[in-house]
Amino acid sequence: MSAPKASAASPGVSPAEKAAIYDYIIPATAPWSRVIHRGQILRIVDLEGQQAVDTLFYNAHDYRERYSAQDTLLAQEQAYITTGSRLISNEGNLMAAVTADTAGYHDTSAGACSCEANTVRFGHHTRYMHACRENFLLELSRYGMTKRDIVSNINFFMNVPIRPDGELAIVDGVSQPGDYVDMRAEMDVLCVISNCPQVNNPCNGFRPTPVRVQIWDPPASSK
Ligand SMILES: [Zn+2]
Predict the structure, then answer these.
(1) Predicted local distance difference test score (pLDDT) of residue 223
(2) Which of 5, 103, 127, 204 fits a disulfide with 175 by CB distance 3.0 to 4.6 angstroms?
């Protein structure tokens, strides 16, 4: 595996300079969504470390345009999301750019957990455990979207090394308490998050925890 090295924190907007216009703690296991306007910075903070944050993006004005993991990885020729990653839509447009990342790298290959996948991986007794797919369904339904609108997502703070033989593994997370990732919206995007409830593998350290989302307006000079 040749994951990119953790990059130094270089937030697009310093919280010390300017107060966030939005600041919210997503409870453990819960969904969340909000429109991030073009130029705004979205920060996701892994408050306690080792918490997977399953994330989708849609064009806020046309939900048929949405994040494409395949196009994003193809464009950057790199298997992980980190500082400098450009998040590309299924129509080839730039949706958001990662401007800072203290955790190092993030998966966008392993998808979101579901009740169905849980039963295959962990046994039928997990069939009724809450999963990311249910979070996405609940949140997307607020915007008139359904199962058909769930596409491959980003798993912020989830550690999925690609083995030399090509196998994807879900192993202990590398994020520390307080690690964060910043993204600048390059179009008006609807961001939909599932704060992953999985307790059957190490993606959340077997203990789902809250995460924080903050939004800053762009610096006045760039408006
Ligand atoms: Zn999950």
Answers:
(1) 52
(2) 103
